[in-house]
Design goal:
By secondary structure, this protein is of the alpha/beta class. Helices cover 34% and strands 20% of the residues.
Protein backbone atom coordinates (compact mmCIF):
# COMPACT_ATOMS: atom_id res chain seq x y z
CA UNK A 1 0.00 0.00 0.00
CA UNK A 2 1.46 3.34 -1.01
CA UNK A 3 1.09 6.29 1.30
CA UNK A 4 -0.50 9.46 0.00
CA UNK A 5 -0.53 13.08 1.14
CA UNK A 6 -2.49 13.34 4.38
CA UNK A 7 -1.91 9.69 5.37
CA UNK A 8 -0.35 8.84 8.72
CA UNK A 9 3.07 7.20 8.51
CA UNK A 10 3.22 4.09 10.72
CA UNK A 11 5.74 4.51 13.53
CA UNK A 12 8.83 2.38 12.95
CA UNK A 13 12.26 1.72 14.38
CA UNK A 14 15.39 1.00 12.34
CA UNK A 15 19.12 1.10 13.12
CA UNK A 16 21.15 4.06 11.91
CA UNK A 17 24.68 3.97 10.50
CA UNK A 18 26.08 3.42 14.01
CA UNK A 19 23.63 0.62 14.81
CA UNK A 20 21.64 2.90 17.14
CA UNK A 21 17.90 2.23 16.95
CA UNK A 22 15.99 5.27 15.65
CA UNK A 23 12.22 5.59 16.00
CA UNK A 24 10.19 7.80 13.67
CA UNK A 25 8.22 9.34 16.54
CA UNK A 26 11.49 10.30 18.27
CA UNK A 27 12.92 11.86 15.11
CA UNK A 28 9.77 14.00 14.89
CA UNK A 29 10.15 15.39 18.43
CA UNK A 30 12.35 18.22 17.15
CA UNK A 31 10.14 19.18 14.21
CA UNK A 32 8.97 17.88 10.84
CA UNK A 33 11.08 15.27 9.10
CA UNK A 34 12.14 14.88 5.50
CA UNK A 35 12.72 11.16 5.00
CA UNK A 36 14.33 10.26 1.71
CA UNK A 37 14.57 6.74 0.32
CA UNK A 38 17.52 5.99 -1.93
CA UNK A 39 18.36 2.72 -3.71
CA UNK A 40 22.01 2.17 -2.75
CA UNK A 41 24.61 3.87 -0.57
CA UNK A 42 27.83 4.88 -2.35
CA UNK A 43 26.23 4.92 -5.80
CA UNK A 44 26.38 7.99 -8.07
CA UNK A 45 22.79 9.23 -8.00
CA UNK A 46 22.33 8.40 -4.33
CA UNK A 47 25.49 10.30 -3.44
CA UNK A 48 24.22 13.36 -5.34
CA UNK A 49 20.89 13.13 -3.55
CA UNK A 50 22.32 12.61 -0.07
CA UNK A 51 24.90 15.38 -0.56
CA UNK A 52 22.18 17.83 -1.54
CA UNK A 53 20.51 17.18 1.83
CA UNK A 54 23.88 17.81 3.50
CA UNK A 55 24.52 20.97 1.48
CA UNK A 56 21.17 22.47 2.52
CA UNK A 57 21.77 21.79 6.22
CA UNK A 58 21.62 25.48 7.20
CA UNK A 59 18.29 25.95 5.41
CA UNK A 60 16.87 22.85 7.08
CA UNK A 61 18.02 24.02 10.52
CA UNK A 62 16.53 27.49 9.92
CA UNK A 63 13.21 25.86 8.96
CA UNK A 64 13.33 23.57 12.04
CA UNK A 65 13.18 20.48 9.86
CA UNK A 66 14.98 17.17 10.48
CA UNK A 67 16.48 15.01 7.73
CA UNK A 68 17.07 11.27 7.49
CA UNK A 69 17.95 8.92 4.66
CA UNK A 70 16.89 5.32 4.36
CA UNK A 71 17.99 2.41 2.16
CA UNK A 72 18.30 -1.36 2.27
CA UNK A 73 22.04 -1.11 2.99
CA UNK A 74 23.36 -2.51 6.25
CA UNK A 75 24.64 -0.10 8.94
CA UNK A 76 28.32 -0.71 8.10
CA UNK A 77 27.83 0.42 4.49
CA UNK A 78 25.67 3.34 5.65
CA UNK A 79 28.46 4.36 8.05
CA UNK A 80 31.06 4.33 5.27
CA UNK A 81 28.70 6.39 3.09
CA UNK A 82 28.10 8.90 5.90
CA UNK A 83 31.79 9.24 6.80
CA UNK A 84 32.96 9.65 3.19
CA UNK A 85 30.48 12.48 2.65
CA UNK A 86 30.37 14.08 6.11
CA UNK A 87 26.63 13.64 6.52
CA UNK A 88 25.15 15.37 9.55
CA UNK A 89 21.93 13.36 9.66
CA UNK A 90 21.09 9.69 10.27
CA UNK A 91 21.07 7.04 7.56
CA UNK A 92 18.65 4.26 8.44
CA UNK A 93 19.06 0.63 7.44
CA UNK A 94 16.00 -1.22 6.10
CA UNK A 95 17.47 -4.46 4.65
CA UNK A 96 14.21 -6.39 4.86
CA UNK A 97 12.22 -3.58 3.18
CA UNK A 98 9.99 -3.39 6.29
CA UNK A 99 9.53 0.39 6.09
CA UNK A 100 9.93 0.62 2.30
CA UNK A 101 7.04 -1.79 1.87
CA UNK A 102 4.87 -0.06 4.48
CA UNK A 103 5.35 3.27 2.73
CA UNK A 104 4.91 1.96 -0.82
CA UNK A 105 8.52 2.52 -1.85
CA UNK A 106 9.52 -1.09 -2.58
CA UNK A 107 9.17 -2.02 -6.24
CA UNK A 108 6.88 -4.95 -6.98
CA UNK A 109 9.46 -6.45 -9.34
CA UNK A 110 12.93 -6.44 -7.75
CA UNK A 111 15.55 -4.70 -9.88
CA UNK A 112 18.69 -5.50 -7.88
CA UNK A 113 20.02 -2.32 -6.31
CA UNK A 114 17.07 -0.40 -7.80
CA UNK A 115 14.47 -2.41 -5.87
CA UNK A 116 13.59 0.74 -3.91
CA UNK A 117 12.00 3.76 -5.56
CA UNK A 118 13.75 7.11 -5.08
CA UNK A 119 11.11 8.89 -3.00
CA UNK A 120 11.13 11.64 -0.42
CA UNK A 121 8.43 12.09 2.21
CA UNK A 122 7.87 15.35 4.06
CA UNK A 123 6.34 14.26 7.37
CA UNK A 124 4.70 16.57 9.93
CA UNK A 125 5.15 16.16 13.67
CA UNK A 126 1.72 14.44 13.72
CA UNK A 127 3.21 11.75 11.41
CA UNK A 128 1.00 12.91 8.53
CA UNK A 129 2.48 13.10 5.02
CA UNK A 130 2.72 16.72 3.87
CA UNK A 131 4.36 16.07 0.50
CA UNK A 132 5.78 13.20 -1.57
CA UNK A 133 8.52 13.68 -4.12
CA UNK A 134 9.05 10.83 -6.57
CA UNK A 135 11.67 11.70 -9.15
CA UNK A 136 14.08 9.04 -10.32
CA UNK A 137 15.91 11.29 -12.78
CA UNK A 138 16.83 14.34 -10.65
CA UNK A 139 17.93 12.99 -7.27
CA UNK A 140 19.78 16.21 -6.44
CA UNK A 141 16.47 18.15 -6.54
CA UNK A 142 14.68 16.28 -3.73
CA UNK A 143 16.19 18.31 -0.87
CA UNK A 144 15.23 21.72 -2.30
CA UNK A 145 11.79 20.53 -3.39
CA UNK A 146 11.06 19.25 0.12
CA UNK A 147 12.00 22.64 1.60
CA UNK A 148 9.79 24.36 -0.97
CA UNK A 149 6.86 22.14 0.03
CA UNK A 150 7.32 23.04 3.69
CA UNK A 151 7.55 26.75 2.89
CA UNK A 152 4.37 26.55 0.79
CA UNK A 153 2.54 24.84 3.67
CA UNK A 154 3.51 27.65 6.07
CA UNK A 155 2.33 30.42 3.76
Amino acid sequence: MALDIGDTVPDFELPDQDGTPRRLSTLLEDGPLVLFFYPAALSGGCTKEACSFRDLAAEYRKAGVQRAGISRDLPAKQKKFAELNNFDYPLLSDPDYQVAEAMGVKRKLPLGPMSTRRMTFVIGTDRRVIEIIHDERSPEDHAARALDALAAKKS
